[in-house]
Amino acid sequence: MPKDPLTPYGNRPMVTPIVHAVNYEYESFEVLRQITDGEVDGYTYHRDDNPTVRAVEKTVAAMEGAEDCIICTTGMAACTMVYLTYLHAGDHLILFHDVYGAHYKVSLILERMGIDITWLDAAHSHLIDEHIKDTTRMIFLETPTNPLCKVIDIAAMRQAADRVGAMLIVDNTFATPYHQRPLELGAHLVVHSATKALGGHNDLMAGAIAGSKDDYDKLWFTRQAIGTTLDAYSASLLERGLKTFELRAQRMAENGLAIAEFLAQHPKISHLSYPGLPDANQYEVSCRQMKNGFGGMLSFDVGDTEDDAKKFITELEVIYHAVSLGATETLVCIPYLTTMLYLPPERRLGFGVLNNTVRLSAGIEEPDRLINDLKQALDKI
Ligand SMILES: Cc1ncc(COP(=O)(O)O)c(C=O)c1O
Question: 306 and 230, same structural domain?
Fold first, then answer.
């Protein structure tokens, strides 16, 4: 038998070794056969599998309460692998306007391939039955949504999906498994941009899809075919990030709530959206499906114009002006100009992404520093 690449020294190292080999020497044709027939776990070629990646897959699966997990190169690779694995020409897909902006681009590709797509506003998710067709095969949602932090009732969406035998996919990037476990609420698969809170340090890109063993096999086939396997170094960084994930998630949620409570009282802020405020839309649903708090993501409109929002961001001294989210540093951006830029303007405005809407991702800094920074920047507009 080949040596287990994870225990090459007899005792197991405290950190999973970074195995950056592309290929592995076959000890014999018999070993090749055993690996090919699935009789033993073994490694042959990086696009198929890698032990450093496999170790972190097991960790993320456990966090989501899944049987297994596929890790891939980016969050959008994960979402696209889900579409490619389960949808066929003629199938109907329900998507929400309030999903990460790159889905719009992917949707143009899917339409070219014969997928029929309906877009809904997450605020109208309770009307989903009106949009379900006999051909609906998938409902794909985020909750809370990016960027407007709208909350969708996962269990209700599962009931709607079951009426036609469709799959329910939940992108859990905003909530993270610390606050929400979609598989327990009825999702068939949970997707992550592991670039965000799972990695947590703005230094790696990765995607994750967690679900059943059967789904792992199907998604593994797609990943192996199209070559979206994560590199071992990024997998190791992700493993390192996951060691502090819960502590970071706890602090991000405390900071998120403190910032939301501060902004809720501020006269220059409107349309504040944070799922943990008692007067938030769907607060009752948030309390039912989220736990340990409500995460570190919020959105709000600053002043009346794009210039007001730009001035506010320019004046910030502690908080960074950058895209991405879920990291140690607090970040802000104007989604209209960044993450949602590729959507036609009328689509962005139609569901509430205005040119003075700001998305904030709370980091793990000391909360008073963040609130003082927001206060001094708002005082200047
Ligand atoms: C909710 C959500 N899903 C998916 C993605 C895509 O992730 P990635 O940038 O890792 O491809 C993002 C990116 O911001 C996101 O916010």
Answer: no
Nearest-CA residue for ligand 1 atom 2 is 100
The stretch 206-215 carries a mean pLDDT of 98
Which residue range forms the structural domain that includes residue 57? 53-243
Which residue of 193, 198, 201, 324 sits with most ligand 1 atoms within 8 Å of its CB, as the best mutation to test the pocket?
A: 193
- Cβ contacts of residue 331 below 8 Å, gap of 6+? 319, 320, 321, 322, 323, 324, 325, 360, 361, 363
Ligand 1 mean position to 308 CA, how many Å?
27
Q: How far apart are CA 15 and CA 238, in angstroms?
A: 12
Cα(70)–Cα(277) distance, rounded to whole angstroms?
34
Distance from residue 324's CA to the centre of ligand 1 (Å): 8
Residue where one domain finishes, among candidates 243, 262, 278? 243
CATH number of the domain where residue 146 is located: 3.40.640.10
Distance 76 CA to ligand 1 centre (A): 6
195 lines ligand 1 (CB under 6 A): yes
Cβ atoms < 10 Å from Cβ of 376: 13
Q: Give the chain's length.
A: 381
How distant is the alpha carbon of residue 275 from its chain centre? 17
pLDDT over 60 at 2, yes or no:
no
C-alpha of residue 259 to centroid of ligand 1, in Å: 23
Higher-confidence residue of 33 and 1: namely: 33
The pair of three-digit structure tokens given for residue 135, joined into one six-digit string: 């051909």
Tell whether 48 is covered by a domain.
Answer: no
Residue 34 belongs to a domain: no
- DSSP-based helix, strand, coil % in the chain, nearest 5: 40, 15, 45
**pTM score of the predicted model:** 0.96
